[in-house]
Amino acid sequence: MVSDLTIAVLGGGSFGTAIANIIATNGNRTFLWMRDEARAATCQRNRENPEYLPGYALHDNLQVTADLPAALQDSDLVFISVPSKSFRQVTRQAAPLLKANAMVVSTTKGIEPETFTLMSEILRQELGHRLTGVLSGPNFAKEIVQQQQTGTVVASSHAAVIERVQGVLSSSAFRVYSNHDSFGVELSGALKNIYAIVAGMAAALGSGHNTQAMLITRSLAEMGRFAARLGANPMTFLGLAGVGDLVLTCTSDLSRNYRVGFAIGKGKTLEQAVAEVGQVAEGVNTLRLVKQKADQLDVYMPLVDGLYKVLFEQRAISEVAHSLMVGEQNTDVEYISQ
Ligand SMILES: NC(=O)c1ccc[n+]([C@@H]2O[C@H](COP(=O)([O-])OP(=O)(O)OC[C@H]3O[C@@H](n4cnc5c(N)ncnc54)[C@H](O)[C@@H]3O)[C@@H](O)[C@H]2O)c1
Ligand SMILES: O=P(O)(O)OC[C@H](O)CO
Fold first, then answer.
1. Ligand 2 centroid – CA 278 distance (Å)
2. Which ligand 2 atom sits closest to the C-alpha of 138?
3. 255 pocket-lining for ligand 2 (C-beta < 6 Å)
4. Domain boundaries defined on the chain
5. How do residues 265-278 score in pLDDT, each as one tens digit?
6. 97 contact partners, CB below 8 Å, separation of at least 6
7. Is 133 annotated as a binding residue?
8. What catalytic activity is recorded (predicted)?
9. Angle between the N-to-C axes of helices 302-312 and 317-326, in degrees from 0 to 180, rounded to the nearest 10
10. Residue 337: is its pLDDT beyond 50?
11. Ligand 2: distance of its center to the CA of 73 in Å?
12. How far is CA 112 from CA 1, 83, 93, 186, 249, in A?
């Protein structure tokens, strides 16, 4: 070990495993907590997470456990990396077990079902005064473990959180940039999942590069407009967590959200598409919540509207695509002074 710090990552899926392994490789005593005892024991024994990242060796500094108190008792920094629908429950489980002064960071890219609460707000509600932050960026877990050069963003209003996360997570293959607009960074990570579904659907229908470029750019405009209305800084959307992650997930079938869209574009129902992907695709739930919020606030979001019609109102994709093309011709860049 080269560090005095102990770190815990809660959630033994693909992203939790990938970041826990970087942190361990960097010389930190690291715990990866997963709820299933048998799976934890297998990962710990075989030094691999066969369900999510088969074939990638876990570093000796990484201890995989289903014992939450053991994972948290000495941890100075805790990452929570579970789907948004489980985030509050896991935070609540962890809260009484956290060490004094432990910092807590969310890696989850979603919005709490029913409440439109972002993960940083859940951390504030459940953990009170603790120092917290969020991590988001163009980060396929599969490419991280392959040591592909990758950049991410840590956002917090506390400089100490940014410094600690950069300290434990940066490596020659993983750069961690900072931002103080946590809300914008977090919102970018959640919103891009919606547009990855749209892009996957368009790809399944044979869209060319012109169409893809238009879709990605108009998605960015829509995300920024929505975020600005909610009080985030639209400039944040120009960074890695915004345009970076949007481009990544709208152009690759490594994205589960893109694969859901692709399957629907090939004629599958939403249920079939979600079952086929088999892992969390946060964009489906985020779409429901964003549509409702945009309607309430009267924010113009034609792509969200169109996708909602296809996914939840059984409207034909071709009909929705046509209405988008003949709809209102909007300004190209809205933040240029008029
Ligand atoms: N996979 C990526 O490349 C990636 C990258 C960046 C961010 N993210 C985000 O991180 C979050 C997690 O993604 P992932 O890819 O690791 O998901 P995943 O589906 O691979 O894994 C999620 C893990 O959480 C566990 N889990 C679910 N509910 C739980 C509960 N109540 N208690 C304990 N464990 C629970 C599951 O068992 C699973 O191990 C998502 O919001 C995702 O958007 C993913
Ligand atoms: O597989 P997705 O669509 O959840 O995307 C994973 C990450 O968010 C990419 O940054």
1. 14
2. 10
3. yes
4. 6-180, 184-326
5. 999 999 999 999 98
6. 68, 69, 72, 73
7. no
8. sn-glycerol 3-phosphate + NAD(+) = dihydroxyacetone phosphate + NADH + H(+); sn-glycerol 3-phosphate + NADP(+) = dihydroxyacetone phosphate + NADPH + H(+)
9. 160
10. no
11. 30
12. 37, 9, 17, 12, 21
Question: For 30-97, what is the HEC assignment?
Answer: EEEECCCHHHHHHHHHHCCECCCECCCCCCCCEEEECCHHHHHCCCCEEEECCCHHHHHHHHHHHHHH
Q: CATH says 6-180 is which class?
A: alpha beta
Residue 249 has, within 13 A of its CA and on its CB side, a CA count of 37
| 107 C-beta closer than 6 A to ligand 1 | yes
- Is the Cβ–Cβ distance between 315 and 309 less than 8 Å? yes
Q: How far apart, in whole angstroms, are the C-alpha atoms of residue 66 and residue 83?
A: 18
CATH topology agreement for domains 6-180 and 184-326: no
Whether residue 142 lies in the annotated active site:
no
Whether 327 has a pLDDT exceeding 90, the answer reads: no
Using alpha carbons only, give the angle 24, 126, 78 rounded to the nearest 5 degrees: 5
Tokens 């003949």 locate to 326
Interface predicted TM-score (ipTM) of this complex, two decimals = 0.97
β-bridge pairing 174-179 and 6-10: unpaired
Neighbours of 97 (CB within 10 A): 16
**Residues 303, 226: Cα–Cα separation, whole Å:** 12
Q: What is the pLDDT of residues 135-156, one digit of tens each?
A: 999 999 999 999 999 999 999 9
Class of domain 184-326: mainly alpha
Residue type, 187: L
pLDDT at 184: 94
Query: Is the CB–ligand 1 distance for residue 280 below 6 Å?
Result: yes
Centroid of ligand 1 to alpha carbon of 83 (angstroms)? 5
Residue 249 Cβ inside 6 Å of ligand 2? The answer reads yes
